[in-house]
Amino acid sequence: MTPIACIISGSMAYGTNVPGSDLDIKGVHIPSAAAIAMQRVAPSERVPGADHESHALHRFMEMASEGQPIVIEMMFAPPGLWAAEPKQAWLDLIGARDRILTSQTTFRRYADRQASAFRGKGTRLATLQALRDVLQAAWDAHGPEEKLALAECPLAALEPLGVGIIIQAGGNQRLLQVGDKRVPLGATLRQAASVVDTAIARYGARALRATAGGNVDWKALVHALRLAQEGMEYHLTGRITLPRDNASYLMAVRQGHVPLGEVEDAISEASGAYLAAEAVSILPPEPDRGWMDQFVYEQYGQAVADAFNSSPGPACGDGAAGFRP
User: Fold this and answer.
1) Digit-coded pLDDT (tens) for 113-134
2) Packing angle, helices 57-66 and 88-95, rounded to 10
3) How does pLDDT run across 78-99, given as a tens digit for each residue?
4) What DSSP string runs through 88-118?
5) Which ranges of the chain does DSSP label H, i.e. alpha helix?
6) What strands, in cross-sheet order, belong to the sheet with 181-184?
7) pTM for this structure?
8) Total Cβ atoms within 10 A of residue 243
């Protein structure tokens, strides 16, 4: 494949990076001529080395027209965030971004998802860890192959945390339930512990940090606030500013230096402003699909033509110069 752009993204693009922050690179590429000709173009590729993902040109343009924030951010990244010198195709693309970008964005959905997660991860993780402690105590006292029912009394004490013993609908099987996880009381302590361990692992290090910080995932709060503010700017101006002009405030939030109530108020205000901006968006509802198709056709067609013209493959015919596949 031929890269046409490599853009620094994530916290380094927003101006909220801290020592140890990952270097995130997002790219756009022209697929290989073979992949194009044989209709085997992958939508995206992982590039070995750094945290680097690259999208095939046609998929990137689709994502941009769908309003996916990370892709829109790439189209407004200033030269200081270019990880490599872009090809002319990228300059032509961002020069025509008004033909691609639309009012159909997902900023609000992503912001809402982050806002709803910032407390919940830590709380759910604390419940799972309390459950795991009860299972471990029963395991130590009775062995891993004893039935979960043996620990029913200490499990019932976790009811205020959302742990319950239920009867399966339409039957008489009794189950331990926590969140969306259910384990029969007839299962062994080993089996139950495995289910809980898998759930704990799913939350990962970020949720563990949220628990340690008082059940507040400050990074999720930063993303919720930033996305709502980016979306408001995008709908009102048709642009996104990177790095963010309030990066110092976002950094203070990420480091837990801003009171939680103030941050929640800021997110609420930004969300309201976003909805108002979305209602009067200056962006068109649909992209110029004809232009998009033509641009991809020209870029992919040129890649295939260049590969064929440079191929030393055998000529077809009776020995005279002919068509070279």
Assistant:
1) 555 555 444 556 777 888 889 9
2) 20
3) 999 999 999 999 999 999 999 9
4) HHHHHHHHTGGGT--S---HHHHHHHHHHHH
5) 11-14, 33-37, 57-66, 69-75, 88-95, 107-142, 152-156, 189-212, 218-237, 247-254, 260-279, 289-310
6) 163-167, 174-178, 181-184
7) 0.66
8) 18
Domain boundary among 212, 243, 261: 212
Residue 275: domain span: 107-117+217-279
Q: Which residues of 121-145 are buried (b: 16+ CB within 10 A; e: fewer)?
A: bbebbebbeebbebbeebbeeeebe
Residues in a beta bridge with 183: 176
**Which residue, 190, 193, 192, 196, is CA-closest to 143?**
190
Task: For residues 227 and 269, state if they share a domain.
Answer: yes
52, 100, 56: which is closest to 76 by C-alpha?
Answer: 100
Largest CA distance in the chain: 89
One-letter amino acid at 146 equals: E
